[in-house]
Amino acid sequence: MQKITLLIHCIDQPNIIASVTNFMALSNGNIVYIDQHVDREQNIFFMRLECEFISDSFSVESFKELFQNALVDKFDLKWRIYSANKKPKMALFVSKYDHCLYDILGRYNSGELNLEIPFIVSNHEDLKSIADNFKIPFHYIPIVKENKKEAELKQLELLETHQIDFVVLARYMQIVSHLLINKYPNKIINIHHSFLPAFVGAKPYHSAFKRGVKIIGATSHYITEELDAGPIIEQNVAHVSHSYSIKDLIAKGRDLEKIVLSNAIKLHANRKVMVFNNKTVIFS
Question: What's the whole-model pTM score?
Fold first, then answer.
C-alpha cells in the first residue's frame, strides 16, 4: 500500500472538492483524511488530503502527470504532493542552550518524530557530547563577523550534500542570512520567547520580572529576512504570578519553548502547514 499527502491552494471557486475527490476515486484511491479552509478575506481555498492506493502499480510520478492534466490547469492550482514512504530530513542548528536539543533528540530516539536527522550544526562545541550520546554527526562551524558568509556557505554545502528538507534552529543564537533563507523558504523553523517586542535584549526574563508580567509564552515560526516576523506555526502561553522568581520564569519559559518547538516540528514534518502571504493554515 502506498499513501500520499496532497496540499493545494487556489482562488476559491465551485466544484474543487468534488473534482479532487472524484479524481482520487477514479485513480482507485481511498481517501483517509480530508480538510479544507477558505480564507474569505483573500478568497483563497486551501485543502489537505491523505489518500491510500492498494495497487502495486501505483506511481507517484504518473499520478502527478495525470493530476496536472486533469485538474491543475482547470482550477489554476498551486499544489504539492508527498509520499508517506519518504521521511523528511531535518538538520538541527544549535549554539549553547541544550534544553530544546535534548527534547528533540529524546522524541526522535523514541520514534515520536516522523523524520530523519542526518546531522547537527553548531557555532560552538559545547553540545557535541549530546550529539555523540545520540549517535548523530556533529559539525562545528565557528562564526565570527569576518567569516559569516564563508561559514554559511559551509552550512549550505552540508544541507545540499545530505539533501535536507528543512532546518530547525533549536536555540541557535545567530541571525541567518538570505543565503539560507532563499534556499529554504518557509523551511527554516525558529523558536523564541513571546516577550517580543516588549522586552528585547539578552535578558528578557529579567525585564519581564521587573515589569511584573502575568503571562509568558513561546513562539515557533518560519524565518524570513525580517527578524522574528515570519509565518507563525505554533504558540503557547502559561500564567505566572508574583510568587515566581526569575529562575522560575526561565524554567517555565524553557518548558514552553520545548513543547512549542516540538509541536511545530511535528506539524511541518507531517505536512500539516500551508503558508500564504506570511500567514499559516494549520490542519489538524
Answer: 0.93
